[in-house]
Write a structure and sequence with these properties.
Layout: H1 4-10, H2 30-39, H3 44-57
């Protein structure tokens, strides 16, 4: 069984975000935390979408 922290790392959540180096805080009991990760959009997804949208909306000339 994976811990909630391991599930969060596997989903792409960065423990070194902002000024909270080495950890991230997720509220609730372990099961609730894991359910929350399952309902979340992992950080790489909006980055990927935003990068492609930028390319379409603001194309570079060349």
């Amino acid at each position: 069984m994976m811990t909630p922290h391991e599930v969060g790392r596997g989903c792409g959540f960065d423990p070194d975000f902002g000024d909270q180096k080495g950890t991230f805080t997720v509220w609730g009991k372990g099961r609730d935390q894991i359910d929350g990760y399952g309902n979340a959009v992992t950080p790489p997804v909006p980055l990927w979408i935003g990068t492609r949208l930028r390319e379409v909306l603001h194309p570079t000339s060349g």
